[in-house]
């Protein structure tokens, strides 16, 4: 940077130069739902979500045709294991090389794996020799993709739009869940497992093309890793940007990021965990996420099926209750996408979690199926709003150098750890029935909400506007 020339001693002081014209407000504060860059990322994310679900349909169908139910379950478990084991490493890699680069690389690899499996299935029958390695590879690639894609939103829009982006992301996820099942089933019915794997590969290719066109904000904390996304050679458009964490995102932070890339992966991982443990907002936020997910996950995923069987509601009742969850969560995402800002996210999170816990307990004690569906809708609305607000808050307060690692820890707390409670939930229902198990899950979730209220920094946290 060139120093400013000084006037000679005794010379009159020159008039100050006119201040540069401020950037247009419309460009800086463009709403996320009108930002083409955000919409490209959102479409890519939706295509990837649908591809994920179609892949699961294809894998489950091929696995059940290959061998016994136990072997089919083993194949499906092989896909989940590396995702849980490698999730934290995926966050380190996202911070080390830049989330955009990792997202594109992992999406490319997922596309190639799907197309390779589809090609092999056109000339041979599915077998464990093919499905097991494919499941392992896809699970490992998911461990790279999920933290990186979760770390992208702060690089796509201004901090004031992050809550709206999370709402839009939630709506996209619901669209993906609704459309993926029929699409996967149609592909299997038309062309068998090969067509389903090929459809998943095509969706990942579409996601990849859109992601390649996404421009990210040139945060200099990962400019060296994502140099291809820099919009101006040597132009510091992020110097001194205040992210609300007191972290410099200019050249000083870039030097820190470059120094981190020279550290071993395990050192960077330990640094990320220490960062969360010392952060006044992230520490209670991650703890609340883990506790409430343990409370909701078992009853919502295993308990509902056992409740429908116990009450004689059958598969129809199960479908309606799950649909109630989905409608409620979709409504929460749409509400946040439209409103765009939650003034007191920590307080809103606590209130919605307490409301969701009460609604979860009400499902098990509802005297009729319609009332159980209504309670499920209230649960989905409350939990969906709490989750979206938590994600926006997490991305707002996290330093750019640690976004990938923090995202991986939050993802592991919600997607990786909670399924471990499913066997215990099933055994508890068999021993005590659904009512006490739902009450225990609701109490655990309410405990998480209480911890949120007892954390002063989390309770006082704000989202930018």
Features:
single chain; 465 residues; mainly alpha; Growth Hormone, Chain: A; disordered N terminus
Structure class: mainly alpha
Sheet-strand content, in percent, reads under 5%
State the total count of DSSP E strands. Answer: 0
Global Rg? 24 Å
What is the distance, rounded to the nearest whole angstrom, between the alpha carbons of the first and last residues?
32 Å
Number of domains: 2
CATH architecture of the largest domain: Up-down Bundle
The number of helical runs is 16
Low-confidence stretches: 1-27, 220-255
- State the order of secondary-structure elements, H for helix, E for strand: HHHHHHHHHHHHHHHH
Amount of helix? over 70%
Q: What is the class of the largest domain in the CATH system?
A: Mainly Alpha
Summarize the structure.
By secondary structure, the chain is mainly alpha-helical. Helix content is 73%, strand content 0%. Residues 1-27 and 220-255 have low confidence and may be disordered.
Strand and helix map with partners:
Layout: H1 25-28, H2 36-66, H3 69-97, H4 99-121, H5 128-150, H6 162-212, H7 251-260, H8 265-278, H9 282-311, H10 314-339, H11 345-365, H12 369-397, H13 403-416, H14 422-432, H15 434-453, H16 456-459
